[in-house]
Amino acid sequence: MEAYLQTEDLAVGYQGRTLIGEISLAVQRGRIVTLIGPNGSGKSTILKTIAGQLPRIGGAAYLDGEELRACSRNAIARRMAILMTARMDPELMTCRDVVSSGRYPYTGKLGILTAEDRKIVDESLRRTDAEAFADRPFQAVSDGQRQRILLARALCQQPELIVLDEPTSYLDIRYKLELLTILKRMVREEDLAVLMSLHELDLARRVSDTVVCVAGDHIDRVGPPEEIFTRDYIAKLYHMEP
Q: Is 2 helix (H, G, I), strand (E, B) or coil?
């Protein structure tokens, strides 16, 4: 199966200084690829670079065979949705308003929704089990409900790829499981490609098709969960006592 997102010898870092180099990833549609590794190992840096939030130090990244640097921001937004860790806190917006803002690649500067746009908003809310609180203020719902709304907003872009940085942060275990169950269902039903980071190893093992192990200055190992999640290897990756 051909990769929808592919990186070749990608180098990421800050202020021109490479922190991790030779990153070669492949994310196929209908699959979840998860980055794991100790805190500060560079997972977020990799995701932010692929998402265009940090400048690339070197290498290449392709979206459906097209170099990302050759794509306009609007063209990328129609294919790739991003859900990062930083909390969104819009004032005076309902949950439906937040989801509707995911239509920005299609509505133009005025942001006027057509009947078709509103239909896609409603469908995104339904797919993320968020209809019941869609018209409540975004600031008034729980963290778990907020994450479902942000996932609906990403889905509203009608992307082929979703990039998520620690999507279960701030959530209790019930909401973590709910969110990842919804995400996995969306991947299968919509044939989406997903690249994300997780710090909960049990959840990464449960939800991922491929696991990428980030070790601070390099990618240490890539493989299916059954190959990655052995006691000896995880102890080595996380510098735990044997």
A: coil
Query: How does strand 161-165 pair with strand 193-197?
Result: parallel
Distant-in-sequence, close-in-space partners of 177: CB < 8 Å, separation ≥ 6: 203
pLDDT per residue over 8-34, tens digit each?
A: 999 999 998 999 999 999 999 999 999
CB atoms within 10 A of CB 189: 10
Using alpha carbons, select from 76, 229, 227, 88 the residue that is nearest to residue 162.
76
**Helix, strand, coil shares, percent, the chain, to 5:** 40, 25, 35
What the block records as the tokens of 167 is 């999507």
Helix, strand or coil, per DSSP, at residue 32 = strand
pLDDT tens sequence across 157-176? 999 999 999 999 889 999 99
Which residue matches tokens 């209908």? 30
Give the phi and the psi of residue 16 in degrees, each rounded to 5: 80, 0
| Closest of 111, 114, 154 to residue 130, by C-alpha | 154
Output the average pLDDT for the chain.
93
Whether pLDDT at 86 is above 70: no
Do the beta carbons of residue 28 and residue 4 sit within 8 Å?
yes
Residue type, 163: V
Confidence (pTM): 0.94
105-110: which pairs have CB atoms within 8 A and are 24 or more residues apart? 105/74, 105/77, 105/78, 105/157, 106/78
Residue 241 confidence class, pLDDT cut points 50, 70, 90: low
**Phi (first) and psi of residue 20, to 5 degrees:** -135, 130
